[in-house]
Design a protein that fits this description.
mainly alpha; Arc Repressor Mutant, subunit A; 6 helices; DNA-binding
Amino acid sequence: MELIRRNTDYALRALVLMAKDRTGDVYVVTRLANEARVPEDFLRKTLQRLDKAGIIESKRGPKGGFQLSKDPARISVLDVMEAVQGPLAVNRCFLKDIGCDNFNRCELKEKLIGAQQDMVDLFKSVTIRELAAERG
Amino acid sequence: MELIRRNTDYALRALVLMAKDRTGDVYVVTRLANEARVPEDFLRKTLQRLDKAGIIESKRGPKGGFQLSKDPARISVLDVMEAVQGPLAVNRCFLKDIGCDNFNRCELKEKLIGAQQDMVDLFKSVTIRELAAERG
DNA sequence: TATAAAGAGGACTAAAATTGTCCTATAAGG
DNA sequence: CCTTATAGGACAATTTTAGTCCTCTTTATA
């Protein structure tokens, strides 16, 4: 069971690259894909989602590419996960738009609702800035 | 993205049923499946995993079935998740037997390792007894 | 203004994981 | 020895995830 899927992983790697040498540059997917060692087309799709979520900005045409649109300290792993792999939930019952027939009579609910929030908080507390920080 | 899969969900429901009216009885899968409203054959497979993990015991033959082999207060949701859907990990790098080529040089690692432990603790802290407790 | 360099977006395929079913074997009670 | 139950493996169906490809649009600039 893994919580962070490949697309989120790829997205995080790309964001870390962008956050690292932050000259305000625009990054072309080809370069990001090479450096992060991930499939280019797939990464592009993934970055498009980050764009829609307002985490990065895209620019078309020559000299185009992707660019952080926020301070890395303000981008959490949760933001990225949700942008890229959808809402985080302990299980189906807690998913937006799905819910559960049985929700109001369910014994499992009460405790798990807390667990879900804890998980959300957890991933909200880790930011790209921290991930990009060099280790000693 | 959901963390608790269907098989774990089914397992939890069955365990809660067993924990509730605890007469030491043995439960036949057919009954559990009906009451929990889950596919019988699939549930049986799932219960076999719980058996191997030592969470329940199986008895064959007439008057056979499944039975809790532990105090429900000593069965955590984590136990069930791991028995039924495998080890819990934030991502592949942290999975037993897989690891990651890049593990020692990875910036993502440090923070996520903490997140993983927090999640484990979280699910370890919720037990079947609590799930089975009637709500007021 | 033509060209080339990007991303946008959709269709599609491939692969993998998950869920579910079925068949035969084995154990055990009456 | 018959019936009830699980064990276990093979298999099928479904869903999710990952990845590719083709065409379109945007835009810098020669």
